[in-house]
Each structure stands twice: as structure tokens, then as C-alpha cells.
Amino acid sequence: MESWTLQVKSAAFLIRNVPEQVELGKLRNGNVSAKGVTTAQKIERTPRSTTKKSPGGNLAVNPTWLKLPELQAAMYFADGRGSSFENASVQELVQRTKAILKHEIGLIFNAEFSTRDAGQRIFESPVELRPAQADVALANVRCAGAHLPMHVSGLNEAPLLTAAHESALFRRMNFLRHQAAVHRLLLNVAEPSVPRLLLVERLLLLADWHRNRIVEANTRLVFSIVKKFVNANNLFDDLLSDGIDALIHAVEKFDYDRGFRFSTYATQVVRRTVYREIMQNQQERTKMVAGLQDMDIYLSDEKSSPAISESRWHELRSRLSQMLGDLDRRQKFIIRARFSLGSHRRVQTLQALADRLGVSKERVRQLERMAMDKLRAMAGEVKPFELEV
């Protein structure tokens, strides 16, 4: 009898202290692992009334702080993007639960997140963000130079964040992800819970809304860095795309509690990414020039009269067409688009090709690199031809 009583007390203590257990065991390094599912399954089988008595309501399926006015705009964003499990089968719920448990939730942990009434404290004070300023953004683009596309003015409409606004947005974003991580541990594949699935997805969407506000306010930082490196070999759209990807990564990894401004950290991340992209483009161009030189074709940036005769030019086009014919369909399309060959009248960006092919930008880059390697190998096998100049 005493042993059974001790087990009941131990289980009750575990339920009351789940946030602390998650904090100490799972969230110390900023990620939550699915290894805690075994404990979560035991908690899920406890009476719901007991689960809702946990400190701060962290385990409640409908936390009261989600109804605060500060989350109205984010809620509107989440309502249009969340999943609907109204007519979902059990198998679909199981698959969705497995998908959520498979992917870890990245966050920067803070001890405040596991305290009582943390959500109420974090969202009770208003964060009054200033509206977008389209006229100022357009003026900034015009001052940057006429050679840059005017559509980028929309990237600079969001006003800069103050230190207080910046800290509040990072604090809220990471808290929402922390809550999603806690509820993620309570998901049970054997008994999928629709309310908890909806809550995890909603918390992640609310966190994404706050992340987007940070990214929008700092996009002009990427713009100011990228525009300095734009030239004939480094297109603005490509560098801007890589810079924004780096900015989003910086938002995910920034620790707001250290007292530094985000722009200081983001500047280093974006510069490093853009520099790496430029060096990679330069290496690709050097390899391509070396391959063409092996075929007695020399490139020069200086404008001069044609260095080859018409017959030599037709021979070159014929051999190039034969080599392109040995590539697969996607590689041939990418090479023609990237070097403005055939029906392509202008050079296509990696992002434009990714949208056309339905793949990621990085996959297009990989396919282009593979195609260039094949062309260089084929060029090395061709003997230099001698034609009348």
C-alpha cells in the first residue's frame, strides 16, 4: 500500500513540474528532441483536469494568454495558414503527429519561459510597431543608384526597430517556440490529439509572424550590404536572395538576452554569406574560362572587333550544341538559361530557374555545377581545331 501511494505522489510531482523537466533535460541547448515522448505519453494519459493545473497553464490545450490583445495580428496571420483536421482520418492524424515529432523546434531558451504566468507577463505590455513607410523606401532605392531594380523598394518599407521593440519580438518569438516544444513532447502517436496538434501548429505560426516582423525590419541591412557587390558577374537578385536567407538564419540563432543589437550580429552573418557566394561565383567563372581556353577560346572584358571568323564561330556553335546534347534535359535548360544561349535572350537568375523547375535554388546551383563539370570534361577530350581566322 505504501509503495502504491509513493508511485501516485511521484506521478503527481512529475505532472506539476513538466516545464522544469523539459527545461533541464531538453531545452538547455535550444532544441527539443523526440526522445521525451515516452514521458509525455504517460502525462497524456492522466486526467485532463490534472494536466491543466500545471504552473502558468503551460500544459493547457487553450492557454489564456493566447487571448491577449497583443496577439490579435499574429492570430489573424495564423488563421489563414493553419491546418484543419475537421474531417481528418486517424491515419492522417498519426502521420501529422509523426511529422511534428520528427522535426526539432529550434529556439533560444530563457529561464523566464518556464516560470509561472510567463505568457501573461510577456504579452501584457503592448509593442507598438510603426506602420510601413513606402515613400521613404522608394527614396532610399533611388539614392542607391539607377542601376538597381525599383521593385526592391517594397523590401525597405518596414521601419527600423528600437532596441526595446527588437528585444520584445525576439523574446516573444522564442517563448512561443518554447511553448510549442513543450506541447510537442505531449503528442502521442498511438492516441493523436487534435486540439494539441492544432495548438502546436498555431504556436509555430505565431512565432513565424514575430520572426517575419524582425526580418522585414532588417531587410534594408541586407540591401545596403548586397548593393556594394553587384556587377556583371554577381547579379543583384542572386546576392539579395542569399543575403535574406542568411538574415533569416541569423534571426533563428540570435540570443537577445545578451544585450547586443541584432544588426551587429546580422551584419557579420550576411557579409560572410555574400562574400562566400561571390568567391564561389569567381571560382566557377575561372574554371569555365580555363575550359574554354583549352578549346582555344579566349574571353576578354575589353570591347574589340571580333577575334574569330564566321566559319570558326559556326564550328564553335556546332561543337557546343553537340556537347549540350549530351546533358540531360534539366541541365541543358539551366546552362542555356544561365548563359543566355538559344532562345534565352537574357541571363536567368537561380531563383527564377528554381521557380520554373519547381525545385530549390540550391538544387539549381548543384545541377548547374554538375553540368559545367560535364562540359569541362567533354571539352578536355576535344582536340583544338584549326579554322581560318
Task: Give the topology, please.
Layout: H1 2-16, H2 18-25, H3 37-44, H4 48-51, H5 72-79, H6 90-102, H7 118-124, H8 134-144, H9 163-184, H10 194-226, H11 236-253, H12 262-294, H13 310-325, H14 329-338, H15 350-357, H16 361-381
Helix pairs in contact: 5-10, 9-10, 10-11, 10-12, 11-12, 12-16, 14-16, 15-16
Elements, N to C (H/E):
HHHHHHHHHHHHHHHH
Count of individual helical segments? 16
Cα gyration radius (Å) = 28 Å
**Large-scale geometry:** elongated
Number of DSSP E strands: 0
Mean pLDDT: 76
Q: Any low-confidence stretches, pLDDT <50, length ≥5?
A: 1-58, 302-307, 385-389
Please give the largest β-sheet.
Answer: none
Domain module count: 2
Helix amount: 55-70%
- Name the beta content range: under 5%
First-residue to last-residue Cα separation: 103 Å
Structural class: mainly alpha
Description of the molecule:
- Helix 5 packs across helix 10 (194-226).
- The protein is built from 16 helices and no strands.
- The protein is mainly α and 389 residues long.
- It is elongated.
- The termini are far apart.
- The model is unreliable at 1-58, 302-307 and 385-389 (pLDDT under 50).
